[in-house]
Amino acid sequence: MFDKYVDQFTNYAPYILGALLILTIGAVIIRFFVHFLWKVLSKTKLEETGTRFLVSAIKAALYVILAVMALSELKVPMSSIIAALGTAGLAIVLALKDSLSNVAGGFIVMFERPFKVGDYIEIGGHEGTVESITILNTRILTIDNKAVIFPNATVASATITNFTQQEQRRLELKFSISYDEDHKRAEEVILKTVVANPLSLDTPDKPFIRVCEHSDSAIIILLRVWVKTENYWELRFGLLSEIKDAFDAEGISIPYQQLDVHLDSAPNNQ
Predict the structure, then answer these.
(1) Which of the four pLDDT bands, split at 50, 70 and 90, describes residue 38?
(2) Cβ–Cβ < 8 Å for 174, 224
(3) What pLDDT score was predicted for residue 197?
(4) What CA–CA distance (Å, rounded) separates 155 from 133?
(5) Is 256's pLDDT higher than 90?
(6) In terms of domains, do 211 and 240 share one?
(7) Do 36 and 86 have their domain in common?
(8) Angle at Cα 113 formed by Cα 93 and Cα 236, nearest 5°?
(9) Total domains present in the chain
(10) Are residues 21 and 83 in the same domain?
(11) Mean pLDDT along residues 251-265
């Protein structure tokens, strides 16, 4: 019996050595290939999280192929290997169905790059600064420091507004003046105030100031001015305060809604 096992081992030894050789050489090749792939992908615009996941996925797939090659060298029936891989793959897909949809969404977000970490965006009725982008979800922080986490499957199919993607934004403000005021003088005051603010830009267009509406109790003057994205809110709040002060200094009145009630004296029937 012992001699029988020795003979079987002796006959099978070349296949074992061949499988070990395949595993050793294959592992070295995979190691160098993964290192090369990481260097190439790190130079692209793909987020680091996506790069890590993609490299890990490719590495796992290569090791699966290497294991199949080793098993084939050991004369394991290929049909058995395929059946085992198919069963395992189906079980994994069913168990991770929702997660895989988020993974797919994560790749869409990372490759299309509708936003990046640090951008201020609006998505799903929430506004905030992008704090992190992982392969499964995207996390933003709102102005009042609330964390909102979106599954990437939702992000990939949502309408996204990116407020900080461009270097410049156009600020739009409206000001009300009384019908008794000279609107041209008010426009000059607004223009003078805007030009004096160092955050306002005259490119790609100069400030635009025009009467845009005749409301029930006021003339509405529209202001449009370009500003660097990072200075948007500072210029907005600054102009609201500065133009109010300029109107006060020039005696330009800002009307407010009021209701006039006229009472007729009742007739004396006595």
Answers:
(1) confident
(2) no
(3) 94
(4) 11
(5) no
(6) yes
(7) yes
(8) 135
(9) 3
(10) yes
(11) 72
How does pLDDT run across 243-255, given as a tens digit for each residue? 999 999 999 988 8
Q: What is the pTM of this model?
A: 0.61
Q: Position of tokens 């190691």?
A: 31
Q: Show the tokens assigned to 12.
A: 């099978």
pLDDT digits (tens, 9 = 90+) for 209-238: 999 999 888 999 999 999 999 999 999 999
Locate tokens 């796992």: which residue? Answer: 60
219 plus 235 within the same structural domain:
yes
Domain that holds residue 39: 10-95
Q: Enter the tokens of residue 129.
A: 């600064």
220 close to 174: Cβ distance less than 8 angstroms? yes
Picking from 93, 106, 168, the residue whose alpha carbon sits closest to that of residue 137 is 106
List the beta bridge partners of residue 219: 177, 214
* Residue 49: predicted pLDDT: 64
What CATH number does the domain containing 134 carry?
A: 2.30.30.60
Closest CA to 138 of 58, 49, 229: 49
118: left (phi over 0), alpha (psi -120 to 50) or beta: left
pLDDT band at 5 (very low <50, low <70, confident <90, very high): low
- State the DSSP string of 237-265: HHHHHHHHHHHHHHT------------PP
Report yes or no: 152 and 135 within 8 Å, Cβ to Cβ: yes
Using alpha carbons, list the distances in angstroms from residue 16 to 64, 71, 154: 18, 10, 49
Do 179 and 242 fall within a single domain?
yes
Q: Where are the alpha helices (DSSP H) in the chain?
A: 2-42, 48-73, 78-95, 97-112, 152-157, 183-196, 232-250
- Tens digits of residue pLDDT in 126-141: 999 999 887 778 899 9
The amino acid present at 222, given as its one-letter code, is L
Q: How far apart are CA 127 and CA 141, in angstroms?
A: 8
